[in-house]
Amino acid sequence: MRINKFLADKGIASRRHADEMISAGRVKINGVIATLGASVEETDEVTLDGQPIAQTEKKEEYYIMNKPKGVVCTVSDDRGRKTVMDLLPEGVGRVFPVGRLDYATEGLLILTNDGDMAFRLTHPKTEIPKTYMAKIEGTLTEKDLNPIRSGIELDGVLTKKCKAHIVETNKAYTKVHVTITEGKNRQVRRMFEAIGKNVEFLKRVSIGQLKLSGLDRGQMRPLTAEEIAYLKGL
After folding, report:
1. Is the Cβ–Cβ distance between 234 and 126 less than 8 Å?
2. Range of the domain at 140
């Protein structure tokens, strides 16, 4: 088994974050600093920051959180900012966030220690629809949204076609629901910036059929058996 999958399966981090730990030299296999792509056997001793990682089965845990803005989606932050891990109530195991919402964005976030699920949900080929509610400064028309729907060039690459429609508008602001199937850095904000519009507020309200409802900012709950089965089937 590759070392990043091993760490993900143990609920240490997602595969992407595991690769970051490995690149930083924090992981050792039998006392030797691990390299990206290294393999692990059942008899190997794996340590993270000098602490052994048990070769035992873990209990899979799945949660949904209403992430508030002003919190980062990482296990730790080298700038000392509050992370989603600081919001976990007592009794929650060693879980990690699936994907990211930027510092100023709030809304639906999945946390789990199921590395395989996290990998599938964040892999570009999966193309899971994610819907955001964006509050845009000033007025906006449906016609103004056409460039966003058809694709905006970001970092030299055209974004995939997406859905966008206005849900509320007045002279001060316009609220828009945007559904994308990819996850470029600050994608929704940057798409509106590309058409000269500023996003005042951004909230993710759904991932596929999983909806954000009944949770105050900063609160979380376990996923139901039906929700877990749905996500595993994606």
Report:
1. yes
2. 129-207
